[in-house]
Structures are given as C-alpha cells and as structure tokens.
Amino acid sequence: MEDSDNAQHDSAETRRTELNTFLFLTIFVAPILSVMIVGGYGFIVWISQMYFGPPTGG
C-alpha cells in the first residue's frame, strides 16, 4: 500500500513539474526566442545591405 501511495505522489509531482515547465516554455521562452530570431534576421539583412547595397529590381 505504501509503495502505491508514493508512486501516486511522485506521479502527481512529476505531472505538476511538467505542466510548469510547459507553461514556462510556451509563455516566456518561445515568444522571446521567436523575437530574437526575427530580429537577428532583420539585423543581418540590414548589415548586408550596408555592405552590398539595397536590392535592385534587376
């Protein structure tokens, strides 16, 4: 009996930890990472246009 109670407690604790981790990743990490990626790409395009000039209609 005692082992099954421990297993259920560990399972509930693990589930709560996983939920907190999921919420942290989806609310904080994913938006910050996406803004950094898009901003980094824009910065690379901006710097490359300073060296190679703006795109032409060619």
TrEMBL record:
Q: What is this protein called?
A: Periplasmic nitrate reductase, NapE protein
Q: Which residues cross the membrane?
A: 21-47
Q: Give the gene symbol.
A: napE
> Mind telling me which InterPro entries this protein's record contains?
NapE_TorE, Nitrate_reductase_NapE
Q: Does the keyword Transmembrane helix apply?
A: yes
Q: Which domain of life is it from?
A: Bacteria
List the keywords (alphabetical): Membrane, Transmembrane, Transmembrane helix
Provenance organism = Aliikangiella coralliicola
